[in-house]
Amino acid sequence: FITRPPHRFLSLLCPGLRIPRLSVPCAQPRPRAMAISSSSCELPLVAVCQVTSTPDKQQNFETCAELVREAARLGACLAFLPEAFDFIARDPAETLRLSEPLGGRLLEEYTRLARECGLWLSLGGFHERGQDWEQTQKIYNCHVLLNSKGAVVATYRKTHLCDVEIPEQGPMCESNSTMPGPSLESPVSTPAGKVGLAVCYDMRFPELSLALAQAGAEILTYPSAFGSVTGPAHWEVLLRARAIETQCYVVAAAQCGRHHEKRASYGHSMVVDPWGTVVARCSEGPGLCLARIDLSYLRQLRQHLPVFQHRRPDLYGNLGHPLS
Ligand SMILES: O=C(O)CNC(=O)[C@H](CS)NC(=O)CCC(=O)C(=O)O
């Protein structure tokens, strides 16, 4: 996939690249933070990377780095990598053995990559040895956001762990190796908009997405490694529902294909706009797709369909109250 020429790459993998609703005239001055691409009339472009992580960390890094470089060449200001971009291990013991702290070698390599490419990176789910590693011998599933200088600007540790038993998908017990994160993270300003951080299974909890939207998120991210049984049934429906109800863009970078003998993922990485339209999707296998983020469209939509003004938090107990 890496050797394909860019135009072919794009037309194959990015049917959503047709630019959605360029309603902002070029003459209109844009905020500095959004003037990322060579032409100031272009809306910020984001890239969604799809990979098949294996237990081989170095190989995984090289694959991700190739996609990130391609994203930068194509003009993206922000690239999204899926959950477990660092590796997918065969068992919990291997997961723990391969894990690193945020200050470890792998994050250092990604810092260099972000700086080299000059783009922001959403590292969707890093197997992180946290401060409490010595006591707990468990890790966090940590979504790390790097800016274009390679600095860590935010971390969110997955709060809903995937302990489920889906017939024919095999049991998953994430809490065997992983601690749930203690809190949600306030949305972060990026060149593409305010990004709200989540991870995979979190997408099943609309409370989280509403909390992020009410705290100002414009883009929700669900980096994932979705299973092959729940994938066809729930993946696109959940992502589109989260986009429609929060009136946010939803970006979901996914693992795909076979990671090792025991595990495969559904793929179907995509970007959904706040209307619920899928504006970009990856085709089968590793690759990337691109989408433009149009915040004036998002604001218009929120004006025309003001669901956040119609909420009745007086009726829902603690649901729907803002983050901060
Ligand atoms: O294990 C790792 O290394 C990384 N973590 C994952 O892949 C996690 C926990 S097993 N996967 C999911 O949350 C899938 C959720 C899902 O498939 C659903 O909600 O239907």
TrEMBL record:
tRNA processing listed as a keyword: no
Pfam families per UniProt: CN_hydrolase
GO molecular function, one term: deaminated glutathione amidase activity
E.C. number: 3.5.1.128
Domain CN hydrolase: 43-295
Keywords: Hydrolase, Signal
InterPro entries according to UniProt: C-N_Hydrolase, C-N_Hydrolase_sf, Nit1/2_C-N_Hydrolase, UPF0012_CS
Enzyme class label: hydrolase
Sequence similarity: Belongs to the carbon-nitrogen hydrolase superfamily. NIT1/NIT2 family.
PANTHER family: DEAMINATED GLUTATHIONE AMIDASE (PTHR23088:SF27), NITRILASE-RELATED (PTHR23088)
Name this protein carries in UniProt: Deaminated glutathione amidase
